Amino acid sequence: MSDNPIRVATSHALPSYLDPHHLGPWGIFLQQVDRVTPYLGNLARWVETLKRPKRILVVDVPIQMDDGTVAHFEGYRVQHNTSRGPGKGGVRYHQDVTLSEVMALAAWMSIKNAAVNVPFGGAKGGIRVDPRKLSLPELERLTRRYTSEIGIIIGPTKDIPAPDVNTNERVMAWMMDTYSMNVGETATGVVTGKPISLGGSLGRHEATGRGVYTVGVQAARRMGLDIAGARVAVQGFGNVGGIAARLFAEAGARVVAVQDHAGCVYAEAGLDVPALLRHAKATGSVAGFEGAQALPREQFWDTPCDILIPAALEQQITEANAHRIQARLIIEGANGPTTPAADDILTERGVLIVPDVIANAGGVTVSYFEWVQDFSSFFWTEEEINQRLVAVMNNALDAVWHVADDKGVTLRTATFIVACERILRARDLRGLYP
Ligand code: NAD
């Protein structure tokens, strides 16, 4: 027997694209495009462009494990559309990542970047891996090998990755270093979400949560909902959910419930968010937090609240729980958290949804600022970044709100109208080559 047997890392979860009862993220995106097509006028002749990713790369990522064996993981990088600029989108490490999911996430990046009018197309990457089962050196080897494998299509003017679920500043530093070693020069602009000392931007770490908070406050104001004292429930307590929860609590809201992958905690008077953040950092989850009531995870959806922030994974709000949700306002921190059927149920019930493609665009907006700063080698203050971020988010929400009122459609459809028009106009102006 070889000293170095080959292991194939697999997950037992049925991939969503094989489950006939499960629409899957890419199917949801296609439905969203179909809903918006009647509003696109002459540009509708280009709509097929949106239904086909420009480029899909599937890579084998073999790494040597600490015990000397070799494990293989499947990695993806999808460039959905680059009509308006280079591809841009995060990299996700998760045991359930599928190509269909990465295709949808890349497509939502195209929509999001166009909705906030940053000059990027849409892309996304991922590795089908449970990073919690890897040691730090294994995680580094995985990241470096993956970066080398996708190095043929990424680059500061081609496609710029960033953090997503289970990836962070440290992973971005490894990606930047690996790409730089391969091209023979330090290329800080190849990824965003880097550590500050490597060309990262002040405010980037907090940007997505701050964007969620910013549009949440504006939407609440338009609905006549006072943030001070408002009850907020948050699913997912990582980069997006944790920071959004902190900002809402600082503004006087009561964060009454938080659910993550391992538990759910509830306090009617409001959770001590800084203490909960410290607990989650120390233990890896909100479960076991003292000073709060532990709830069965499923009960999260019944929690009495005014504002619900899904900030974990896609397809969390479905036909099965949409009727139970008590919030008046949903701000989608996660990408694709609401299925189209649940969207219809909630709209029918008068619940206002600020869709992911606007609500969580704060991250890519400051990623754009980071990329600009890297190119010019001139860095802005945190105050400047946050001011510009708030301006971009407010302008984008104002614009889609206007379209929603004008056409009598949901904020999601309005955002898709604005974004698809921008993408397809660029497509139309560029024409086809050859
Ligand atoms: P993260 O890894 O920092 O945190 C993810 C959180 O979700 C963790 O608290 C985890 O416990 C929780 N979670 C995981 N599975 C869950 C489940 N089944 N049920 C309940 N909770 C679960 O990730 P993040 O960066 O905060 O990303 C969260 C979402 O926001 C994702 O949909 C991501 O695509 C989206 N997003 C992130 C950014 C960003 O800048 N980080 C930008 C835009 C959108």
UniProtKB/TrEMBL annotation:
Binding locations of NAD(+): T208, N239
Presence of keyword Plastid: no
Site-annotated residues for Important for catalysis: D164
Example GO biological process: L-glutamate catabolic process
Domain Glutamate/phenylalanine/leucine/valine/L-tryptophan dehydrogenase C-terminal: residue ranges: 201-431
Keywords, sorted A to Z: NAD, Nucleotide-binding, Oxidoreductase
Alphabetized GO MF terms: glutamate dehydrogenase (NAD+) activity; nucleotide binding
Gene3D superfamilies registered for this protein in UniProt: 1.10.8.1210, Leucine Dehydrogenase, chain A, domain 1, NAD(P)-binding Rossmann-like Domain
Similarity section: Belongs to the Glu/Leu/Phe/Val dehydrogenases family.
Name recorded for this polypeptide: Glutamate dehydrogenase
Organism of origin: Tepidimonas ignava
